[in-house]
UniProtKB/TrEMBL annotation, chain A:
Residues 27-152 form the Alcohol dehydrogenase-like N-terminal domain. InterPro entries: ADH-like_C, ADH-like_N, GroES-like_sf, NAD(P)-bd_dom_sf. PANTHER family: DEHYDROGENASE, ZINC-CONTAINING, PUTATIVE (AFU_ORTHOLOGUE AFUA_2G02810)-RELATED (PTHR42813:SF2), ZINC-TYPE ALCOHOL DEHYDROGENASE-LIKE (PTHR42813). One of its GO terms (molecular function) is metal ion binding. This is Glutathione-dependent formaldehyde dehydrogenase. CDD domains: FDH_like_1. Its cofactor is Zn(2+). Residues 196-279 form the Alcohol dehydrogenase-like C-terminal domain. The keyword Nucleotide-binding does not apply. It holds the Pfam family ADH_zinc_N.
Automatic annotation (TrEMBL), chain B:
The lineage of its organism: Bacteria, Pseudomonadati, Pseudomonadota, Alphaproteobacteria, Hyphomicrobiales. It comes from the Bacteria. This is Cyclase dehydrase.
């Protein structure tokens, strides 16, 4: 089959690789009908996230049709249409039972590596480094879904892929980012980053009834899309002091809730701390650039909440933790517990409260995948979300 | 694994940046290893320590250019370094320097490299240049089939799970006590 394969920094190719086969009784194989490129894939593309090996198949936002089912899998049958959550879950461990699916205790087959890096293991993830299991990803014609009897979202026929695909990751991720804020009707929610995750977070905060949503980015068409969803915007190319601007917009008090949908590759070329981060990252004294995190801590109203869906991989530096501590801020973060929200979100799509396909700007075949990685990363051609149809 | 489609090649400016990175390292090593010979040739006696320090700067910048996925800020660093070099060379023209000819040649070379650095940084920035506002018509992409008014607060029925609630005292206060929870669970 054809698949998008990682070969090194900024080197992803459309290769021919062996078809996946059932390896365990709980597995299923799906024929991929649609998949997508995620901002998290960019951290691998740019190789800021450690733990990739040449030959790894990319992709963790996938849906398709079940074509083969393992012997012990009693919940799926050939022909079922499923969306595959990016977190692989066993459905039986203590964390899964609590709904903390992204920290499932059993699905990371490289648990030892994760323990060394993070102290404890977290869930296995598709197409996302050997730290999280080194499982082949879904930017391919076929995907083996391990623990498939639990790791799936059944979806009805008759709704197009475009509306359902993002149940795999970015829609529940934006949703959980907003839910982590426990939004109250009088809240102002500030959202850094208007990529796909930020866009979903904006829609989720509006659905959950935030009084105001303020979105921050520097890419004009992403800001336009943010306003389309009901957000006010701050354009970083025009405003260098985000914290002061947020204070102005909120009567000096700051937003109650702040969401970081940017993560470790935050952009900031105009400020001193940006140059400092670049230098440290280049000589490997720091792995992540916490520019947004610093701003959120300074901007947030005392006793407010910081919600962090943006991915960090390792060490950060010069975080004003004194401000965070003394302001009494609450930090909520994590990879998304996708399956915890799927039923509710599927219903909202079916009822027409939201149609997540608004975010797709490019639809291509697998062969154009490598090129689209670059287009998406460099924000060329108005690219916000790439959907791939293998 | 055969039959691969190559990713789009790196741009010409990326290649130029790598060239400048290697150039930085080469020049830097010369400055670190042979400061005396350089100073003699340029008629700048007593500047050996300064030249060595510049060498360290060159090597560090060069390494950073080669290692980072976006060399733009480091090429800016080179432009700043070029300015320093030119200022230092300029001091050599004071009085009558017997090596003024060499110095003029070196100055011309640095000016040339500075122009390359500037071209490179402009090219890299151009590659990444954002489109003018309004290029892409995304203002109809609300994602709300029923319109904004219907969507705003449509999910207030959502029962925030207990483990996602913020602590009671941190909720907004009304009439001297924390406001009631919107939906129980
Ligand atoms: N928690 C999870 O489970 C989960 C799931 C999916 C994605 N993510 C993460 O969410 C983040 C965003 O993903 P995406 O797909 O939207 O990626 P993206 O790269 O398309 O979006 C990031 C956006 O942030 C903007 N940005 C950069 N620096 C900024 C700054 N200093 N201030 C404000 N905005 C800035 C960029 O212009 C871009 O529009 C990534 O870190 C990704 O790894 C997390
Ligand atoms: Zn993702
Ligand atoms: Zn589990």
């Amino acid at each position: 089959m054809k698949a998008l394969v990682w070969h090194g920094t900024a080197d992803i190719r459309c290769d021919t690789v062996p078809d996946p086969t059932i390896e365990d009784g709980r597995d299923a194989i799906i024929k991929v009908t649609s998949c997508a490129i995620c901002g998290s894939d960019l951290h691998l593309y740019d190789h800021f996230m450690p733990g990739m090996k040449s030959g790894d198949i990319m992709g963790h936002e996938t849906m398709g049709e079940v074509v083969e089912v393992g012997r012990d899998n009693k919940t799926l049958k050939v022909g079922d249409r499923i969306v595959v959550p990016f977190t692989i879950i066993c459905g039986q461990c203590e964390q899964c039972k609590r709904g903390n699916f992204s920290v499932c205790e059993r699905t990371n087959r490289n648990a030892k590596l994760a323990e060394a890096a993070f102290g404890h293991t977290t869930a296995g993830l598709f197409g996302y480094t050997h730290l999280t299991g080194g499982y082949a990803g879904g930017q391919a014609e076929y995907l083996r879904v391990p623990f498939a009897d639990a790791t799936h979202i059944k979806v009805p026929k008759g709704i197009p892929d475009e509306k359902l695909l993002f149940l795999s990751d970015i829609f529940p991720t934006g949703w959980q980012a907003a839910v982590q804020c426990d939004i109250q009707p009088e809240d102002t929610v500030a959202i850094w980053g208007c990529g796909p995750v930020g866009q979903m977070a904006i829609r989720s905060a509006i659905l959950l009834g935030a009084k105001r949503v303020i979105a921050i980015d520097r890419v004009p068409e992403r800001l336009t899309m943010a306003r389309a969803g009901g957000a006010e915007t701050i354009d970083l190319t025009e405003e260098s002091n985000v914290v002061a601007r947020l204070n102005d917009m909120t009567g000096g008090k700051g937003p109650e809730k702040c969401i970081d949908s940017v993560g470790m590759e935050a952009h900031a070329t105009t400020s001193l701390d940006a140059i400092y981060d670049r230098a440290k990252q280049a000589v490997m004294l720091e792995s992540d650039r916490p520019h947004v995190l610093r701003q959120m801590i300074m901007a947030c109203r005392p006793a407010g909440v910081l919600s962090i869906p943006g991915v960090y991989g390792g060490l950060i530096d010069k975080v004003p933790f004194g401000a965070a501590m003394n302001k009494g801020l609450t930090f909520r973060m994590g990879q998304t517990h996708v399956n915890r929200w799927s039923d509710d979100l599927l219903r909202r799509i079916e009822e027409g409260q939201i149609d997540p396909s608004f975010v797709i700007t490019h639809t291509v075949g697998l062969e154009q995948g490598p090129e689209m990685y670059r287009t998406f990363r460099d924000k060329q051609d108005g690219c916000i979300k790439v959907m791939i149809r293998p | 694994m055969n039959r691969s489609v190559n990713p789009r090649a790196r741009s010409a400016h990326d290649a130029l940046a790598r060239g400048l990175g290697w150039f930085s390292i080469g020049l830097g090593l010369a400055e670190i290893l042979a400061p005396r010979a350089l100073c003699r040739a340029l008629g700048l006696p007593g500047r050996e320590a300064l030249i060595q320090a510049y060498g360290v700067r060159e090597v560090a910048t060069g390494a950073a250019i080669l290692m980072s996925h976006d060399p733009t800020p480091w090429i800016w660093g080179r432009v700043a370094g070029d300015a320093l070099d030119l200022a230092t060379l300029a001091t050599g023209f004071e009085g009558d320097n017997p090596r003024a000819g060499n110095l003029a040649l070196a100055t011309a070379a640095v000016v040339g490299v500075t122009l390359a650095d500037i071209a490179c940084v402009q090219g890299l920035t151009g590659d990444k240049r954002l489109p003018p506002p309004g290029t892409y018509e995304y203002h109809h992409r609300s994602g709300f089939p029923g319109g904004f008014a219907a969507a705003h607060g449509a999910a207030r029925d959502f029962a925030v799970p207990r483990d996602f609630r913020i602590p009671e005292p941190l909720r907004p206060w009304r009439d001297g006590r924390p406001a009631a929870v919107s939906a129980p669970s």
